[in-house]
Amino acid sequence: MGLTLWRNAGLVTLDGSAPWGLIGRGALLVDDAALQWVGPEADLPRGLSIDGEVDLGGRLVTPGLVDCHTHLVYGGDRAREFELRLQGATYEEIARAGGGIRSTVASTRAASGEELFEAARRRALALMAEGVTTLEIKSGYGLALEHEARMLRTARRLGRELSLTVRATCLAAHALPPEFDGRADDYIDAVCTWLPVLQAEGLVDAVDAFCDRIGFTPSQTRRVFEAARALGLPVKLHAEQLSDQGGAQLAAQYGALSCDHLEYLNDDGVAAMARAGAVAVLLPGAFYFLRETRLPPVERLRAAGVPIAVATDHNPGSSPTLSPLLMLNMACTLFRLTPEETLRGMTVTAARALGLVDRGRLVAGQRADFAVWDLEHPCELAYRFGGGNPCRRVIVAGTQRKS
Ligand code: NIG
Ligand code: FE
Known about the structure:
By secondary structure, the chain is of the alpha/beta class. Helix content is 36%, strand content 22%. Strands 1, 2, 3, 4, 5, 14, 15 and 16 form an 8-stranded mixed sheet that branches. Strands 6-7-8-9-10-11-12-13 form an 8-stranded parallel sheet. Helix 8 packs parallel to helix 9 (267-276).
């Protein structure tokens, strides 16, 4: 491939001290899969032997978006449940009555491998169309070794067949499957025996759990984290989404990459996350769709220096969105993040929530993952909502994705 020059662009580098790390008329030099040089076009090093040149016509370039929290692989949908919730049933009541996550488990188990893959592929393509170049996908709708493995293999296959990076997270401790009714501790024992098997097949990049009244207790979560630690796998947690369980403190003890949701996070949790360097992954789609009223403690997270990421949480029950840009908007309107915080939250900080330091900024040495937008100013990424996708090109590891 050699050396390619991408020139005549507004670069949103997210580096340095200028707002957005903006470089007015900038250029990127890409050597195969990596950014070799980034700066104002006028400062381009002389005497380069360039193999290809692309004029971006003054368009904006940002790092490729990183969606660091999704449940993209599943069968069926939960539109009927949405209707029930509008009639007054709560997410928790539906879950306790055997609906919710369990109903998606039934349709996921019933789907063929091809059906699961095809549905997930279509969803991934929708996210990718809005600039996503790195995507995390959780299991957690299989809840049996064979079905969890199938979900994670589907995630891996998406990473092989599509032009993006996929990180696979094992979320077997998502809900109690019917065959373990009344035996949550036995189920956790089983999950702890599955982890080495899934890891041996190369299917796991991180381990997650749902610590809540309708999920698992802190002590059950701790056992999952112990099993992950024994395998050298990083952990993350669905924490403090519906109630305060002290999940964030627990996850921080295990050096969690991230704690996600966090509407009910308390001050000790904020402090523990700050000490551990855990990322707070905020999920405005789930907040909105569940009509939650309790806000995550954004001010306190900021004050404590906890890095904040934003993700779609795409899933059929609490956040059936496929628009990362809409999440940038909602993170501003609902959570009062600044537009710049939201973009950092879906690039460099989201990468950190996945343990990745090689992407998320336009800086020499980083992966050449970037998106080209038909926009004048990066504020517009969070300003617009609902349609009119301004993403014009996506480059992954130096290669332009075919649309
Ligand atoms: O991130 N809270 C747990 N997990 C998902 C929802 C899963 C579902 O409802 O299917 C979430 O909100
Ligand atoms: Fe989630």
